[in-house]
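Input.
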Amino acid sequence: MCRAIIGTEWWADLLEAHCDDGFATLAIEVPCCGGSTTLDALEYDWPCGFARFEIAVRNPDRLWFGDAELTALADRLGHPVKQVRARI
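Output.
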């Protein structure tokens, strides 16, 4: 992967193109160099997740959960977790 910066317009167009199929695959061709990769392999400025399910917390009393809390949750689920904040 060339590590070039990809504009948000490309990302928005990609979301629009896959709004009906929900990204049946994460495989993509990046516009910067034409290389093949997957959406989850790209580096994002903010945490981003691709998941089969989510645990949503509405109006939490704080911005982030601590590392120990995320580790405990991952241990209970038996799978790594990633914290992604979203404003709705």
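The mean pLDDT is 85.
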